[in-house]
Design a protein that fits this description.
signal, YdbL, DUF1318 domain-containing protein
């Protein structure tokens, strides 16, 4: 009888001592806000497009482009505006060196020497990369994103817009001619 009462007591303690856990889904759906990242991406893309329009002079001939460029120029810091204008001034030389294969566009938005020994090309690459980094840092700071993210997006744009015959870095040290 003692054994049976012990088993009954142990069973009662076991049932009372176990906690019940109730797992339920929340009544309202869980919401994830991805709009901020998309918004940052769109602003970075708009900044890249506007600066590249200054560099290439694409919108200079249109009436609307004049006003858009003027409005954006007020949003640029003087350093970024000057860097974009210097890039515009050296653009012809840069394209000629890219088409000759002397320099190439990297996937990180910079240019690099592919045929060493040309001091003029080395100086041009150094100046171009310095101006690009001024622009990348300003865009990253303005939009609250990393410089690496800006470089990636800007690099895609620069490679897409590069002239035929330009060496393009496709990753892992591999290059192709556009």
């Amino acid at each position: 009888m003692k054994k049976i009462s012990f088993i009954v007591m142990a069973g009662i303690l076991l049932v009372v001592g176990c906690a019940t856990v109730k797992v339920q889904a929340p009544k309202e759906p869980i919401k994830v806000d991805i709009t901020m990242r998309l918004d940052v991406y769109q602003h970075v893309q708009n900044d890249i497009d506007t600066i590249e329009n200054i560099v290439t002079g694409i919108d200079k001939g249109s009436f609307l482009g004049y006003f858009v460029g003027t409005a954006y120029a007020q949003d640029l810091s003087p350093e970024v505006e000057q860097a974009a204008l210097r890039r515009r001034d050296r653009r012809g030389e840069l394209i000629a060196l890219e088409q000759s294969g002397t320099i190439g566009e990297t996937f990180s938005g910079l240019v690099t020497i592919r045929a060493a020994g040309n001091y003029t090309a080395e100086q041009l690459v150094r100046d171009e990369n310095n101006d690009r980094m001024v622009i990348y840092n300003a865009i990253a700071s303005k939009n609250g994103t990393s410089v690496e993210d800006v470089q990636k997006l800007y690099g895609e744009r620069l490679q897409r817009d590069a002239s035929s015959g330009t060496p393009i870095e496709i990753g892992n040290g591999n290059w192709q001619i556009k």
